[in-house]
Specification:
mainly beta, Porin, 8-stranded antiparallel barrel, 11 strands, 60% strand
Length: 197
């Protein structure tokens, strides 16, 4: 896939995210808003920092269980190695306690574009070292997450959810293998206000 095609594909996924937000806002004109926006830290721990933002759409809301669908757009920066941007979508089950605490299990799939953090060089046919530039590679990104947190919507009328945990993901097609990663994920989710019809 050429660089321009990769960028067009990533922009298409972003446009799907934006259209999903508008559709979910139309559907949220009920007694309770199902749509929330979120943002937070996504990084391979402290040395490889990054961020994400996205939406959380509530599919089922019970006293002890929430089923939700999430879409995230993010990036992380691995100094002297690579910089990556990604878009991903996941399905989650949030198990809630009477103390407004929760455990959230998520599984999903994403798409990642990665480029080296620094210039690449190659030896040409004459044996000279020449600059190769910064090629962009694309990867599928299957994910599994385990998050813990507090949900202010449960007992208090606070439209915030705070959570943290680990996300495991695989960078598919990295040197012909699926390279495993583990990332720290910590963020806040804001429940959009209900629109009265």
């Amino acid at each position: 896939m050429k660089y321009q095609q990769k960028i067009k594909f990533l922009l298409s996924l972003v446009s799907i995210l934006v259209s999903t937000i508008s559709i979910a806002q139309d559907e949220s004109q009920t007694d309770r808003s199902k749509l929330a926006i979120k943002a937070g830290y996504f990084g391979e721990f402290v040395m490889h920092p990054g961020f994400y933002s996205g939406i959380d759409y509530n599919l089922l809301d019970k006293s002890w269980l929430d089923l939700h669908w999430d879409t995230d757009l993010g990036a992380y920066f691995h100094k002297w190695n690579n910089n990556s941007v990604f878009v991903q979508s996941s399905f989650g089950a949030r198990f809630c306690t009477s103390f407004s605490m929760y455990t959230d299990l998520q599984i999903g799939i994403g798409y990642m574009l990665s480029t080296p953090s620094g210039e690449l060089y190659q030896v040409d046919k004459d044996g000279n070292l020449t600059e190769k530039g910064k090629p962009v590679t694309s990867h599928a990104k299957p994910t599994v997450s385990l998050l813990f947190g507090w949900d202010g919507n449960r007992k208090k009328d606070i439209p915030l959810t705070i959570g943290f945990g680990l996300e495991a993901y695989w960078q598919m097609g990295y040197n012909h293998i699926a390279l495993p990663h583990a990332a720290l994920k910590a963020g806040i989710t804001y429940q959009l206000k209900t629109k009265k019809s």
